[in-house]
What does this fold into?
Amino acid sequence: MAETKKLSIIAFSGDFDKLTAVFTLGTGAAAVGYEVNIFFTFWGLDAIKTKHGRSFTGGNWLTKIFGFMMGGLKVTPTSRFNFLGAGPRIFRGLMRKNNVATLEELVDAAKALGINFYACEMAMHVLGLKKEDFIPEVKDVLGVASFLKLSDGGETLFI
Amino acid sequence: MANKILDITKEHCPMTFVKTKIELSKLSEGDTLEVLLSEGEPLDNVPRNAREQGYNVISVEHVEGTTHKVIIRK
It folds into this structure.
């Protein structure tokens, strides 16, 4: 029997459309037997916050403002045609209408499939985020070296 | 031995095999999952993925129109 296939995704973008791609690829791979790791960094950290809306996360006033502006899963913007927030609403509507999984459904499926979620230590530090700000499914907080080690032998994507 | 039914005729990739995989992982050994799915991508991928992951695909039959039924045992 061949070794377990492995896919690691660096989720850098916090855009609605790119995060949808992250979770579509991740859940698809996990569903066909891959071991899947997702390393959330910088804007991607928005996808794993416990609060899906906007909140004042962070230590000082500057990170609090950024934390509020960035928000969580519910307020991720589309990379184009965001139209001040109408874009994601339009796309979610289109997805529901065509029975395609929405971002939230894909994230739930990722949790159900046991995909490994990791948060980037450096980005967390800069944005003043703590492990408590994230969903409990986040397995660990990692740096580059640890991530490279656990993604070794598989394929890595940067989204 | 339990028999679960999963209707994914209205689902699209990746939720077709994602939902199938999630249901299969909840089964106990010996249980079966009856999957109702559509022609095209689901019919091509779901039975093959189940076999590749070591599940026993007992039958694949046409029900009516574009709907097919796949029975998988753990």
In short: The helical segments of chain B are 15-26, 41-52. DSSP finds two helices and four strands in chain B. Chain B has a mean pLDDT of 92. The radius of gyration of chain B is 11 Å.
